[in-house]
Amino acid sequence: MEERIEKIEKELSEIRERNVRVEAEKAWERSSLRVVAIAVIIYSVSCFMLFVLKADRIFLAGLLPAIGYFLSMQSLSFIKKAWMQNHK
User: How far apart are CA 64 and CA 27, in angstroms?
Assistant: First the structure.
């Protein structure tokens, strides 16, 4: 009986540790830092590619995909809520 209780306690501890990790990952997915970091990376890569292609107004044109990404991330919560309400 003692052995069984110890096994259950160990499993419960592992589940709690996993839950902490999953919650941290969810928080990262929703974090503003993540969204801004990805937008900056998109802007940098876009500017680099426009430079390589010798486009005009590199820094202004590079904003388009970064702003698109940022706006899409801001609207996803509204879309998700609407989708979840229609699929309950």
Answer: 27
